[in-house]
Amino acid sequence: MKIHRLLSDKSHSILVRVASGDELFRAGKKEAIWLGMFDSWQSCADYSQHLTTATTEVSAFTTDRWVRRQEAMYLSATKGDFPRATSLPPVVEMTGEHKIFDFGGGSGWGIELLSEVSLSNLSAYIVIEQPKFVERLNIKTSRSKKLTFCSLSDVYESSNSSSGLLYANSALQYLSSDEEILSLIQKTRPNWILIDDLQVSTGGEFFSLQKYYGQFIPCRFYSPSKLCDFLKTLGYLQVFCFPYEKRYSEVTAPTIEGHVDSLPNIGAPLIVGFRLLGHRDTKS
């Protein structure tokens, strides 16, 4: 299936240029959030360390500020507001799946946006998060008996059958390799895989640094065709692909010494759905 790419929209574009390596420039009223291009996750992470003055590494996703943001997103969802764009509710309704694995799902706000019909048919909404925050999130969000939190290792121990939908919203780009998602797919063997906000490149795959809460964290820009080929080897076929809400266009940068020569354009983030070959819809 042909990958759809959103045309450039000047009203939403972000033009990023890296001059001296450390300096970020503004484009219009938007602050540039990408810094440089790297040919590997490790070189990206090494350069991130060069930019920070901290003596110990602190992940942007292991701070109290991150947890408070997740709690605020859950509260927003309980009021019927969308904390961020998501295609989960209509896809759950379309597939009729009874179990959802939300990889990197934070506070589990996605469950609050499901329709009453989908929620009544749901047997479990399992958020897969960092072990450090699993217990804390469980305590603070005991709002639904169907909502639980666990680490990857917990999923491995508890899952013994193929079912449900594996969901990831703005999560895959922060994985250093495919190993985690590969293991997750092999263990849970979901019927469907839904990816929101998939960061992609119009050229080959590359890595960059994203400004996030005052830190610079490695971020991966996928080659859509490469990802499709990878999932196809696991038995999954791409069945739909649409532009995500956010738009980026023409991101360029001079060469950073020791890295690749040019920065390909960042494509519009995507919503991509994959179906397990041979699976029949739960919902007829």
Descriptive account of the structure:
The protein is α/β, with parallel strands linked by helices and 284 residues long. It has one domain: 3-Layer(aba) Sandwich (Rossmann fold). The chain has 8 helices and 12 strands. Strands 6-5-4-7-8-12-11 form a 7-stranded mixed β-sheet, sandwiched between helices. The protein has a 3-stranded antiparallel β-sheet with strand order 3-9-10, covered by helices on one side. The chain has a two-stranded antiparallel ribbon with strand order 1-2. The longest helix is centred in the N-terminal third of the chain and has 15 residues, at 64-78. The protein is globular and about 50 Å long. Mean pLDDT is 75; it is low at 1-30 and 247-262.
Brief characterization of the structure:
This protein is α/β, with parallel strands linked by helices and 284 residues long. It has a single domain (26-276), classed as Rossmann fold, CATH 3.40.50.150. It is built from eight helices and twelve strands.
